[in-house]
C-alpha cells in the first residue's frame, strides 16, 4: 500500500492552494553580518521550466531564478544572474566564476561532500494521476488490486511502486509522454510519476483536460531525494547561512507563495 507524504500547511493567505513548506517553524534562523559583502553572482541554467528558463525577452527567469532575486532583495544585497550550461554549473562554481548555483541539482551526499547547500526550497514529489471520468482514487485505503499503473521504466517511481503498490499490475513505459498517453487513452488506471512533469502536462493543452492528480504527494527521501537548494562553496558558509535565513523569511512573509503561484498554475503538490 502506498502511503502519502505529510506536507506542512501553506501560508494562511494561500491556504486553498497546495503550496509546500520546507521550513520548521520551531527553528528561527538569524541573519549573519553581511557588512562589506561583494556583489553575488548567481549561476543558472535556462532550459528547465518552470524552475529556470529563458523569458520572452531572453532573460533568465523561473521559480528558482526569481526566488534568488527575491532572496537578494530580502538581504539587501546586490546580485547578478549569469547563465551557464546545466552540466557546467558546478564546475563554474568551483572555479569561482560565480558564487551561488540556483538550479535543479538534487541534494545528494556527493554534492554535500563538494559544496555547501542551503536547506531545500523545492522538492519534486511523486504523484498519481488518473482520468477525470474514472472513479479511481489513490489513497491509503486503496490496495490497487485489479488496477494497472503506468510508470516510467528505471525511475524511482517505478521502484517505489514495486515496493508498495500491493496487488497492482505495473506497466513500465520508456518515458513520461508514453505513460501520459496510455492514461489519456484509457489503457491504464493510473500514472505514478514525477509530479512536476505531470503538473505541466495536466495544465497544458496536450492533456485536453482528460486527467487530474489523485491522492497526495509522495516525498520519501530514500526514493525521491532531499530536494534542491542554493549551492555555494564550502568556504562561503556565511553566504549559505544568509540564504537559508532569506528563504525562511520569504516563506513567512508570503513571497515564496506568491512566486510559487506564478510558476506552478497546477501545483505538483
Quick structural gist:
The chain is α/β, with parallel strands linked by helices and 269 residues long.
Question: How large is the share of residues in beta strands?
Answer: 15-25%
Shape assignment: elongated
Question: Order of strands across the widest beta sheet?
Answer: 5-1-6-13-7
Approximately how much helix is present in the residues?
25-40%
CATH fold descriptor of the largest domain: D-Maltodextrin-Binding Protein, domain 2
Gap from first CA to last CA: 20 Å
Top-tier CATH class of the largest domain: Alpha Beta
The CATH architecture of the largest domain is 3-Layer(aba) Sandwich
What is the CATH superfamily classification of the largest domain? Periplasmic binding protein-like II
Describe the structure.
- The chain has 269 residues and is of the alpha/beta class.
- The protein has two domains: 37-123 and 226-263, D-Maltodextrin-Binding Protein, domain 2 (3-Layer(aba) Sandwich); 126-224, Periplasmic binding protein-like II (D-Maltodextrin-Binding Protein, domain 2), CATH 3.40.190.
- It is 30% helix and 19% strand.
- It contains nine helices and 13 strands.
- The protein has helices at 63-75, 89-94, 109-114, 156-164, 176-184, 195-202, 221-224, 237-252, 255-263, and strands at residues 40-44, 47-48, 52-54, 60-61, 79-83, 100-101, 116-117, 126-131, 148-152, 169-173, 190-194, 211-218, 231-232.
- A five-stranded mixed sheet has the order 5-1-6-13-7. Strands 10-9-11-8-12 form a five-stranded mixed sheet, sandwiched between helices.
- α1 crosses α8.
- The radius of gyration is 20 Å and the shape is elongated.
Amino acid at each position: 500500500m502506498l502511503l502519502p507524504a505529510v506536507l506542512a500547511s501553506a501560508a494562511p493567505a494561500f491556504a486553498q492552494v497546495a503550496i509546500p513548506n520546507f521550513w520548521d517553524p520551531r527553528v528561527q534562523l538569524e541573519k549573519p553580518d553581511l557588512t562589506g559583502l561583494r556583489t553575488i553572482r548567481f549561476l543558472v541554467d535556462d532550459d528547465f521550466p518552470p524552475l529556470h528558463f529563458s523569458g520572452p525577452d531572453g532573460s533568465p527567469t523561473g521559480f528558482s531564478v526569481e526566488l534568488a532575486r527575491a532572496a537578494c532583495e530580502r538581504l539587501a544585497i546586490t546580485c547578478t544572474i549569469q547563465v551557464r550550461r546545466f552540466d557546467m554549473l558546478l564546475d563554474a562554481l568551483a572555479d569561482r566564476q560565480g558564487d551561488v548555483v540556483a538550479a535543479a541539482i538534487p541534494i545528494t551526499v556527493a554534492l554535500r561532500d563538494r559544496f555547501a547547500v542551503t536547506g531545500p526550497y523545492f522538492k519534486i514529489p511523486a504523484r498519481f494521476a488518473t482520468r477525470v471520468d474514472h472513479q479511481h482514487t489513490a489513497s491509503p485505503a486503496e490496495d490497487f488490486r485489479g488496477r494497472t499503473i503506468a510508470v516510467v521504466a528505471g525511475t524511482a517511481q517505478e521502484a517505489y511502486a514495486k515496493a508498495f503498490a500491493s496487488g497492482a499490475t505495473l506497466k513500465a513505459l520508456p518515458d513520461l509522454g508514453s505513460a501520459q498517453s496510455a492514461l489519456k487513452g484509457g489503457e491504464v488506471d493510473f500514472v505514478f510519476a514525477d509530479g512536476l512533469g505531470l503538473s505541466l502536462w495536466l495544465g497544458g493543452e496536450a492533456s485536453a483536460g482528460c486527467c487530474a492528480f489523485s491522492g497526495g504527494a509522495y516525498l520519501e527521501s530514500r526514493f525521491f531525494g532531499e530536494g534542491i537548494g542554493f549551492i555555494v562553496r564550502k568556504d562561503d558558509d556565511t553566504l549559505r547561512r544568509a540564504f537559508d535565513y532569506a528563504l525562511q523569511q520569504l516563506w513567512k512573509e508570503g513571497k515564496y507563495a506568491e512566486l510559487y503561484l506564478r510558476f506552478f498554475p497546477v501545483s505538483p503538490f
